[in-house]
Structures
1.
Amino acid sequence: MNMNEQLQPVITALADRFGAQSNEFRSEITLILTPENIANACQALRDEFDFNLLEDETAVDYWPEQEPRFHVVYQIYSMHHHQRVCLRVPVPGLKPSLPTIETLYPNANWHEREIWDMFGIRFTGHSDLRRILMPYDWEGHPLRKDFPLGYEEVQFSFNAEQIDQDKSYAKREQE
Amino acid sequence: MGIEQKTANMGAVTMRLEDAVNWARTNAMWPMLFGLACCAIEMMSAQAANYDMSRFGMELMRASPRQSDLMIVAGRVSQKMAPVLRRLYDQMPAPKWVIAMGDCASCGGVFNNYAIVPGVDVVVPVDVYIAGCPPRPEALIHGILTLHEKIRGEKITTWA
């Protein structure tokens, strides 16, 4: 396929220089990198191979099935060649941290803030790492698999009155 | 009978103070623009030409809490928005009322998770709850008229 032919020099260059393993699924290329060389790989992609748009940066939590626990996923697109490549970085769960790519792609600012908020992965060198979706003093990282769902009990007919007693409108009626 | 006819002939009408004050409060109640999510669209369409809310006195919606009497919480309130909501409610001058419009503002709606406040009545005291997801503009108008009836029934002991 011509997509693979155009991407092939990129993949071989990244594999030689940074030890990236590549997977392919239905013509989508995924390269697996390590936390030490993700920043250099992104720099090489942007400067040498014209991959100028960071489309998406997100994270996945595979606890407890896989170790390392987090995978940070970068989707980088080249407008000049109409090519897309996906980078994955496995990050262990104890004090997870990665170098930031905000200096290369400025739109990573909010993406990395969201990953910090939802997963707790620190980005070293980030200019403004604080919570973006939850309140600033929230404790915990909601999208981790061991974060409680945080739901309240559904009222069915057998527990309706018992749940009603703890509600705010019940207390106001008692006053 | 006699004295009222006499005063009416002279152009003076007597009524109870409660009736007068409550009539004045209901007939020109300006809501504050507090559309948060999808219910805001139904609130906008209730304000627009087809289901006109201006015929009930709500001529316009004030964006500033200092100039409004009624806060229609239209939409889901997230944990990050709840302190903002409380602060805006505190900035409204008395008398003020709150309508929780829609399921998300009344009880959390379809959402049952860490991010959405389960019902806005944990943040502000609510007078009228309107069910629906989203409630039709007629349902919103019905809720507002219910609030008007509630205010018409207020006694001087509650607000004096």
2.
Amino acid sequence: MVSRRAFVEGGLGLAAGLAAWPAHATRARREDTFGSTETVTPAPLRVAVVDRGVAGSAAFAAAARARGLRVFEFTSDVAQVWMRELEPRLRLGALEILGYSSPATSFCLELLARDFGAGAAQPLGVSTWLIATNPARRAPLAPLSQQQG
Amino acid sequence: MPSPPPGMSDRNFQAALRELEAVVGREWLFTSDEDVLLYRDGYSPLWGEPEERVASAAVAPSSVEQVQAIVKVANQYGLPLYPISTGRNLTYGGSAPAYSGSVVLDLKRMNRILDVSERDKTCLVEPGVSYFDLYRHLRTSNIRLWIDTADPGWGGLMGNALDRGGGYTDVEFRDHFDAHCGMEIVLPNGELVRTGMGASPQAKTWQLFKYGLGPWVDGIFSQSNFGIVTKMGFWLMEEPEAALQVSITVPKRRDVVPLVDVLHSLMCAHTIPSQVTVASPLMNGSGDTELVRLRGSGGASDDDWDRFAAAQGRPFWSASFAYYGPRRVLDAQWEHTKDRLAGIAGIAFRETASYTFPLTDVEVEAVPDKARFGIPSLNLFGSRNAPGAQPSEGHLDFSPMIAPHGEDLIALSDVTGKIYADMGLTPPFVGGLMFHPRTMICFHAVPTYRNAADNQRTRRLFETLVRSCTDLGWPIYRIHAHFHALGMQMFGWNGGALHRLHETLKDAIDPNGIVSPGRYDIWPRRLRGSRA
């Protein structure tokens, strides 16, 4: 049972998060060996990760699903979600991860996602953050489709 | 524009970078500040200070041949390289080089699992293979073998083994360097070497027999800078039928002496197979003022402590570990353990978890203590959940090694508690983890910050801890890169003979000093003036 308070907190968290979520960068300026060029890149996949242990998580997850986001839930330890869901998707292409969790999870995912071209986790609200790969960014494990101009 | 390593002209540095780019392609040479800063040690005790160790660039090869070509360029220009596997060695230096200005040789792209033999229970991997990668491969391939993972489990097998990390399962696997079998190494002159049976081209036993023929040299490539390891074999644990996780508590301070003696005896007899953690439910408590006073006194009596424990209603010590095997066997092992410990008044035994394998994904998710069952986890970062905790701040692991004697654990706790109190700091609890079968490592976290004043205090504290504990017979087994020189000083018997031997080897194997100068205080001749 989701309490009214938790529901409101979760819904507000998602609303704040989505409001602050930057628009898709569908074009990324980058250079290749032959000089500057502008390349159209596919819109990144968007998913949400939600820690069931954080107040308001159920409402956040429900609201995220209602907006069409694929939601991966976990309790405290995000490792299984990383292994099964996030890393395989990062190996395929650009990804934006909307998170509702403790700072521990955003810290871990920020460091793990760096190897795929992600920047720092952007706080979007209380317990809400965004980690996004940059298609123009080079990184040791970034998918080849992003790397080749 | 990256700055060249000390003593190298910008012109030569740029020329070297162009040649590296020709080797790996433009995509895999990283020179922008934005990229290079990713290799900064996020837990550095020198964060933002001029002495913080930082890279000048990074290069990410995809093959052994590219590593050899990079080494050739480095020799030509005297360019220092700092190889990393997955670069997660936080608390011991992360992916930042031991010598500022080095080019990080990022081996993450070399991440192939080259072989897994379910029959022989072995694997052969490249440097970039993480615990996550191998665990996922075994699960998705329905191979009933376990990895032994470090905790947190986000690092890689090779990097952790080469820095002599430890894990939690059976004794044969949890000393990660000891669990390796066979290496391939690019030497600093570019030559490729395979150790053990791998040196015999047709041998079918590279991952089965460690020694090969002649001197066994694998050890010189751990905690060192004598080569770039590009493949390593490991022994894997057969998934048991079942596992039983247990916890034991004892009420009084001195109870830890017979408790540890018996547990150690049972480990040596292979009755207890897993790593044993000795902790203190009492001293892990909150910032109770009486607890802080007792911890900082450096010598409160056993009676004082026992009165405090009784008043708190908490046991003084706990021990947790696991059995693996057929259910009837592990039940018998547990009964035997209880019989051996029954003489300690007030002892309590508890079965904390019981599993039958294989586990479903849902069951895996619910395992609270995953590393004991070969499951990589990030749960250790839960401490960052504390209100107001700053995720960007980290810590150093202070990791003195003691004999598995309860008296030493008590004494070390007293000594470290007083050191903290004398500096006006709240002492942390010091527990003991028996990764290795005949010693105990007493980790505790010394916090690092993003401001110089607090970090200066941290460095003073850390150095005091290292020196004081070494004086009492408890040197560290591993240490953050900033303290490599201090660490090696603690191993200075006979005027530093061991360190001189290390540098004699360095001069012979790496005369141009291109691989990880300064790592574990091993400097090439041309940079010995750089010693901290």
3.
Amino acid sequence: MIENATPTVNTNADIEWLRQLGYGLRYSRSSTRKWQLCLLDGPNMSNLGVGGRDPRNFGTISSLGALHASMTAFVEGIGASLETYQSNHEGAIVGRIYEVAADTDAFIFNPAGLSKYGVPCVQALVDSGRPYVEVHFANTAALGWTGGTAPIRHAAASVMGLRNHGYVAALYGLINALDDGIFNETVS
Amino acid sequence: MTVDPLASAQPVQLRRGTRRWVVELIDGPNMRHLGKRDPRLFGTIQSIEALQALVVNFGLVLGVDVRPFVSDYEGELLEHIHSTATTADAYLIDAGGLTTVSEAMRHALQETRKPVVEVGFYNLLANDEVSVFTPTAIASSTGFRQYSYLGGLLGLVLSLDDESFLHPDAAESLTARRGGTPYTFNSK
């Protein structure tokens, strides 16, 4: 049996702090472009925090809503725009990717339960023509899968192992990389 | 052109934590020759000094000490890790040409019992490179070129500040991983 841990990131103050952090880092960017980013969380992520996901993997963030609200605040603070989405249904994520691709500059994708076999989502992301960053709360390399996760070969970048803080790392790296135009030549 | 947007930044309190973490930044073989390396993988950054200054200055913005070290010699890297093990709070490493082979460097890092974040300019698995470091590192941040280092450092610092995760003085708990070993669904 997995014990529950006390949730920590769940107040408006936590979310406002991330907005301030984003705002404080705004001047470190080399551009002021308001990139349109789309964050996709895969199956089981709706169970974060009080839903009971294993705290040894996922830490003490209180809920998916808290995660998405704090990342939206961080991105707004740094001067870009974030849309968030989660589904436990692979087909819904596939549909969402095609739906938002035209209005999206880059995706941040946590495949979660689709990490090993989520090929339809990978094809949709490749079809979108937009770069994507693969993120994970846990270090998936420690699972020892040959060749890594399904999305990794087509991902522009990846951040894993830093729990919810890894999303901040991924968003900061992504926004700076977009500002610098580094994915323009590498996107497949 | 690569500019260093952080060169004139003044230290400000962006974090909730106040500890001035010591982060050892280690670059392995070939990274010393940045500027002469393949621009398709490493972009336009002109030198290792420019890279180290970028990361050190970002550390100043966040209020932490980043201590850079680079060597083309595996033995020097090992001795540097041995001699910093007690003073470092964490390691940010890009093993360069040793990424896929150096069990010795991986062992040295593991024996520091400090969190290690692996960073890299490009997505290793997309280039058919399997890092020996990732499975035992707490985290990785790759694919954003030099911004992988900045995103990795930001995520690492927030994780060190987090008393439910990497903070070295935090009490033993379900979620604390202050020794830096990753947890996965395969862990016992």
4.
Amino acid sequence: MSYNWNWGIFFQLSPDGTHTYLQLLLFGTGWTLATSLLAWAIALSVGAVVGVIRTSPLPWLVRFGNAYVELFRNIPLLVQMFLWYFVLPELMPQAIGDWLKQATNASFYNAVICLGLYTSARVAEQVKAGILSLRSGQRMAGLAIGLTLPQTYRYILLPMAFRIILPPLSSEFLNIIKNSSVALTIGLIELTAAARSMSEFSFQVFEAFTAATLIYIVINIIVVNGMRWLEGRVAVPGFISMGKPAAAH
Amino acid sequence: MITITNVSKWYGKVQVLNNCSANVAKGEVVVVCGPSGSGKSTLIKCVNGLEPFEQGIITVDGISVGDPDTNLPKLRARIGMVFQHFELFPHLSVMDNLTLAQVKVLGRDPKSAAEKGMKLLERVGLNAHAAKYPGQLSGGQQQRVAIARALAMDPIAMLFDEPTSALDPEMINEVLDVMIRLAKDGMTMIVVTHEMGFARKVANRVVFMDRGEIVEDAPTADFFGKPRSERAQLFLSKILQH
Amino acid sequence: MFSNIDWNVIIRSLPYLFLDGMRFTIMLTLMATAGGIVIGTLLALARLSNIPGLSHVAGAYVNLIRSMPLVLVIFWFFFLVPYIGQWLTGASRPIQVGAFLSALVTFTLFEAAYFCEIMRAGIQSIPRGQVQAAQALGMTYWTSMKDIILPQAFRNMLPVLLTQTIILFQDTSLVYVISVTDFLGAASKVAQRDGRLVEMYLFAAIVYFVISLAASYGVRRLQRRIAIIR
């Protein structure tokens, strides 16, 4: 192979003069995590609301929720990022548009909102599936003892639905972390962007991308184990499945 | 106490209840029986508004269930319901199952709610299981907790939707015993069930439904002694065989 | 707000957008799907096999790919494929690989990891009795797989496979990061050349939306028809 390996490149100074390449990668990791966590907060809160209204008894609410999900699911994430970053400021009144374009960290905020809403549609799917997997009797039992419908959702349906969908939810969280890399196209210097930039300046392409790959793997392992711990923590004793009546033994 | 007058209900084009009328006086125990698909579960769920109905009037203690102005949650808090599949809330302990509605709906303070819960658990013989979760209990135990949960709201009437149909045979009696004691203590009860032994012991009246209609509504002794309709006779002969 | 919009730019560039850009996108989608399903199925069989080490290697590959962002994988193969070509052909320098080929290799091998998991679930959902019946008739492993298990698994998982294809269709837009001209790349080029970002990106979004929506409706109808037949 005509490629020169140099694993010491990480400890050499980058062109900016003050930071090593390793530090640049770690800064990128920081941006990746910050973007992912904030976007996840948006995705969970908005997604839970949309998921709930898709199971509500009001047909127009259900249709709105369905339209919301279809909108965010059928447009590629990259296109959505461009719409938020390039198109939205142009559609706003001149003053607001200019302010948006000149804001510091504009790419960060755009990435967070875009990623958050994109993922919220997928979270909504999971929440709806989780609620619908519960026996209809649970909703009736909640109403029968006098809880209102919102109370029934809050105290009975949602606690169980979230426990049921923890595994697919943790997949969605991992997806957000991976999808944050798309934001490099709008200028966010997250981990993949940092690796790309390192490879361009140092020509040590494979070292840079190997490091990025390893960091993503480590993040993956931490999240997967964290989710497993969480699942154990909130598990309901004796719970097998809500689909069938509890075993008579 | 509970009046059902000319109630009809459709699911889309299919009529599931056809002009049903019945009355339940205070302290009466009424058993509703009939072949599956006869609409008995649907009818009982109309009484506390869990199922809407298109025609007719249902009143509970003078309040009209079908009236859009009625505060349904408040009304439902005064009626207790026990389901075929128990429907305990699996993520809450037994005690929390009993106190949740007391605190959130009736506004009782948690301490007195817990005391009441404990007393009811003793009444159904399950005070040792207060900290357990529904998934750790047998079916019969879960159903008894479900009855206690409904009683915790101090209801004026109790509705039972096939309370023993999902239980293994050896557990049916422990639940029926609780229901019999409840009846003897004077609770107004509507019970959808196939357990004719229970009916003979405590029911004042038996209502027989078939294909969405109330075919017969007679005092217990008359129903078992001389059922007037042929359909009721046929049903009884099938059910009393085993 | 809408006073400055020039819809003509869209109409003028339609041939370029669709004949060049969309053609690339669709060809990449179809070929990567075909290749991905074949390789994915082989990976699934590897993961389920008893040959020592094979299932671990296959599993490691799948888990590695699935923990990496697609953008990173695109960069990896963009730089790696020329070296692989050099190694395979024994040339003295890394081989210049065209953009399409690089993208094709990337997406095929990336999606293979995801198709692998889908096919693995499909194969495992076939009742053991089917395998035993095939063996009782004297079929070898490969024959029973080829004629009995895989056809059923494939039919069962068809809706999921098609949904993954729709996801692939949307994912191809990421070739943007290596400056390849797919549909989005074409729209972007026109947008930057004519200064018409709003019109072009909105149009691109609408086109992707319509195609994806129509495709997923098609999959849902197919699901209903399969359910009835079963």
